[in-house]
Each structure stands twice: as structure tokens, then as C-alpha cells.
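Entry:
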Amino acid sequence: NFAAQGDDVILFGLTAVRNVGQNVVDSIIRSRKAKGKYSSFPDFLDKVEAVVCNKRTIESLIKAGAFDEMGHTRKGLVAHHEPMIDNVVQVKRKEAEG
């Protein structure tokens, strides 16, 4: 769950984040391999499978810093992630229905 990188960096594995299970991590990895790197938070939501788009899971990832390198603040994402997730989930449901 953790790995040292150099003398002053510790990498925190996603499965160590509360509310993030192995199935979510596997889905994130599958989506990234199939669709490429995530360039922004909305891009992440668009590319990942619906199983990942759970408000509690996404909030935990935000608070753990999973999106820090994408140019968004944690505070901003925590404040605005719920309506973004609602929109993406609606789109994914419609796509699944055909």
C-alpha cells in the first residue's frame, strides 16, 4: 500500500484510501490503459467506469490527493464534485441503456 520514492517521498497506494476498494482501483487502471492518461478531473469522470463514480469514493480520492496534479484544489473539488458526478452518472446510464 505504500512505497518509498527517494529519500523524502512516500507513495500512498489507492487501496489504502478509505472507501476505495480493489475493484475500484482495477477499474481505474483498466480505463487508463484503454483510454489514456487522465488530463483533468472531468476527464477522469468521463473515462472511468460507472462503478468508480460513487460520491463517497471520489470524495475519498480527492481528500487523499489523487487529483492534485491535475490543477484542481482539493477544497474546490470537494465543494463541486457531487453535481459533476451526478451528470456523468446520468450520461453513463443513458449510454448503457443504448
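Strands lie at 2-5, 9-12.
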